[in-house]
Every structure is written in C-alpha cells, then in structure tokens.
Amino acid sequence: MSQRRTSTAGTPIHPGEVLLEQFLEPAGLSQYRLARAIGVPPRRINELVLGKRGISADTALRLARFFGTAPELWLQLQNQYDLDRAQLALQGKLEAIQPLVTREGLPD
C-alpha cells in the first residue's frame, strides 16, 4: 500500500470501492446482507460503498472478521485514500516547503 492508488481518472480510490469491487461483487453479497452479518446499520455500508463515509476502527474489525482479512488492511486502505487526497489538495504548497537539513548537510 505504499504506492499511491488512483483510478484511471487520476483520483484516489476510496476503500468503499475496494469493498464493493473486490469483496461484495465477487461473493454475490448485497450491502444489506453484509451490514446484517457484521451488525451495523445498512446505511453505514451504503455510505462506505458510495465514498461518503470512511472506514473506522470498528468497521475495520468487523469487516476483517467477516472476510477473514486483517483489520489493518481496511485501515491502510482508508489511510492511503486520505493521504492521496491530501497530497492532491496540497500539491503546490508541499513543493514550496524546504526540507530540514542537518549540520552534516544531509536530511534527517
């Protein structure tokens, strides 16, 4: 997950898109059925799939238990999405920041 994940349009991929395309659709599982199976309101899964909600630690634990994955997978997807969005939003401003140079002349 260290590389920036973007769609073909160049926009970051929301973890809800991963949930839908790599987990729900291949399993033939509806959002409603997933929500009931993991004990969350169906709206939570719907908002996640639509990219309107992020994955919390609570949701990551539930998804991991259900799908047999690590909770860190879900949190890393969310973290990468957040970082990618911030990087796009701050691109010009970040380039203007000069890195700190130590006395030896090498960045720390």
Tell me the layout of helices and strands.
Layout: H1 15-27, H2 31-38, H3 42-49, H4 57-67, H5 71-95
Helix pairs in contact: 1-3, 2-3, 4-5
Could you give the order of the helices and strands? HHHHH
Q: So what's the overall shape?
A: elongated
Instruction: Estimate percent helicity.
Output: 55-70%
Q: Could you name the CATH class? A: Mainly Alpha
Rg, Å, rounded? 18 Å
Q: In total, how many domains does the architecture comprise?
A: 1
Q: Do you know the CATH topology?
A: 434 Repressor (Amino-terminal Domain)
Please, how many helices?
A: 5
Please state the structural category: mainly alpha
Q: Determine the N-to-C terminus distance.
A: 24 Å
Main sheet summary: none
The CATH architecture term is: Orthogonal Bundle
Q: pLDDT below 50 for ≥5 consecutive residues: which ranges? A: none
Q: Give the strand content.
A: under 5%
**pLDDT average, as an integer?**
91
Number of strands: 0
CATH evolutionary superfamily: lambda repressor-like DNA-binding domains
Pfam family, one: HTH_3
Protein name: Plasmid maintenance system antidote protein, XRE family
InterPro entries: Cro/C1-type_HTH, Lambda_DNA-bd_dom_sf, Toxin_antidote_HigA
Domain HTH cro/C1-type: 20-74
Description:
It comes from Halorhodospira halophila (strain DSM 244 / SL1) (Ectothiorhodospira halophila (strain DSM 244 / SL1)). One of its GO terms (molecular function) is DNA binding. This is Plasmid maintenance system antidote protein, XRE family. InterPro entries: Cro/C1-type_HTH, Lambda_DNA-bd_dom_sf, Toxin_antidote_HigA. Pfam families: HTH_3. With 108 residues, the protein is mainly alpha-helical. It has one domain: Orthogonal Bundle (434 Repressor (Amino-terminal Domain)), CATH 1.10.260. It has 5 helices and no strands. Helix 1 packs across helix 3, helix 2 crosses helix 3 and helix 4 packs across helix 5. The radius of gyration is 18 Å and the shape is elongated. The chain starts with 14 loop residues before the first helix and ends in a 13-residue tail after the last helix. The model has no long low-confidence stretch (mean pLDDT 91).
